[in-house]
Amino acid sequence: MEEFEDKGGVGRTELENLGEFGLIDRLTQDLPIHNPQSTLKAVGDDAAVLKVPEGHVQLVSKDLLIEGIHFDMTYCPLKHLGYKAIAVNLSDIAAMNAKPLQVLVGIAVSNRYSLEALEELYAGMRLCCDRYGVDLVGGDTTSSVSGLCISVTVLGSALPERVCYRSGAKENDLLCVSGDLGGAYAGLLLLEREKREFLANPNVQPDFKDFSYVLERQLKPEPRTDIVDLLARLDVKPTSMIDISDGLASEILHLSKESSCGCMLYQSKIPVDAETCKALEIFNILPEVAALSGGEDYELLFTISQKDYEKIKDVPEIRIIGHMVEAAQGNYMVPENGTMIPLTAQGWQAFNKR
Amino acid sequence: MEEFEDKGGVGRTELENLGEFGLIDRLTQDLPIHNPQSTLKAVGDDAAVLKVPEGHVQLVSKDLLIEGIHFDMTYCPLKHLGYKAIAVNLSDIAAMNAKPLQVLVGIAVSNRYSLEALEELYAGMRLCCDRYGVDLVGGDTTSSVSGLCISVTVLGSALPERVCYRSGAKENDLLCVSGDLGGAYAGLLLLEREKREFLANPNVQPDFKDFSYVLERQLKPEPRTDIVDLLARLDVKPTSMIDISDGLASEILHLSKESSCGCMLYQSKIPVDAETCKALEIFNILPEVAALSGGEDYELLFTISQKDYEKIKDVPEIRIIGHMVEAAQGNYMVPENGTMIPLTAQGWQAFNKR
Lengths: 354, 354
Hints:
Two copies of one chain form a homodimer.
Chain A: H1 19-28, E1 39-41, E2 48-50, E3 57-66, H2 78-94, E4 99-109, H3 115-131, E5 135-143, E6 148-158, E7 174-178, H4 183-200, H5 212-219, H6 225-233, E8 240-243, H7 248-259, E9 261-266, H8 274-282, H9 287-293, E10 300-304, H10 309-312, E11 318-326, E12 331-334, E13 341-342
Parallel strand pairs in A: 4-5, 9-12
Antiparallel strand pairs in A: 1-2, 3-6, 4-6, 7-10, 7-11, 8-10, 9-11, 12-13
């Protein structure tokens, strides 16, 4: 995490002294091009010019991140925020079983932010772009009345026969998940606790030792493009796929609905990291609750045909957590002993009063 | 303008009663597909799936529109705002001499907005998409702490040899503009005057008769995709092109800088509509000042080789307004009689205190 260390004391240059074009020039100077055959013209004109690789289709997605809704500047460093803004978008392309190639970034900021603050934000964005071989090809920078609004558009490509939709799952397909779940939510709980304590007594230093993994899960999620590559190497094409942004329950219900299936999820198979469990204990939250409803893990959830079972059964990064059934059977979590629990989407509801 | 008439009394459904997915379903239901060979999968998955037409390159651009910065809800009806949000993005693709095919829309709204308000916004977006044969293929809907934030991404395509950059202008090329200028600024001045009068006395009815053209220029600009088609029919490929969002002066300076040229602009050739002149007179503003610095006209500014002069000289929608010179000569407006006036970018500066 060396590249995330706070350098401190970087000064303050007011945005109004730069103007819109000056700011864009500063933020986008020396951008590397990782995909020269696809990125023909990046920033600097009315639009970016791209070439989709021969025979490929293109994937496009976008996400908005709003201060006070998706992030809290009290505990979210700008560099991490920039990294996360890119990462969650790359995750949408991975969720189509495709490779992200380009991003465009729009930001609206109030004068409360300095040039140096935005440079930190962009440094995090660049770091994520560099790590995943993605080009930042354009965007828009403007002012806002209050707060920070980040809009990222991501473009990627895949051979058409490799693209995975939410709608392809069939009865008896195996339900699989990458990595482990609930960590991002555990990290959020820790950060919110520290915020409350900080507001009560600003002299208290945060005590985050032993929780670096869950904090990183919350502040700096990684898109699972490696799983896309792994599935290609294993010669497995998922029948359906989605990324886990709103919690496992909500995403399972999306796959089931779009595929006209039901699903049986085996409670004991849900992968939760030991550190996540330890952090959740502090808040008296069961690991499966965090996995089902916590959100922001950005792991991939997908279904595979039973004929592919042998290919993935020993892959450590992939866990089989259930199977699809006919729609009439519904969607349930199946404990080892006990009553089946109906799955409900208690995921993140953007418009609820919270 | 029948489709822009206020239907009134549409009720109020709170967003929190719908949830994020319910809202997205409502706003994106029954979206038509105008480009079935290019738009393979629109809304409803983690990303849209597109196919760029054979042999074409792709153009991508994005713009943010922020309440209180780019629009004022006091006088900007939501349906017009939706139309404009799409139109200004299509204009960016036209400015590359390309055809827009798809848009993605992200909106962040506070609970102050109702479902019906957002439906009005989307109705305007759909109207513009339908008029220009563009597909709405995805997006993101979330809440904001305050106000409305609209993020639009536009995708288009062109044969690579038809793409026009800002950087291709050569010495002696002719500088051309479509349509007429200053109208959008004149419309803004009228609307701001009415706002002041309304705030002073809410019983005063706005007096907008005789000014429908300039109001429409401000509230409902049209992207000049027709000029892109016209140039193709005339077999003219501009050597450089840009759209006029920030005012003629600022855009000329962009073309000059990116092309390493200077420019002589003939003051008497700048096209300004009679109604625009009449509106500007109320505010004691010279027509050329509004054209140079007003912004938001969304006309196309481009340069052509002198060999193409005969092809465009009698086209009513295109005016030759100057010519490019070597960089050392600088950028000037040339009056019929008098001293040459250096062009400076007094365009819209997003971060100025206003």
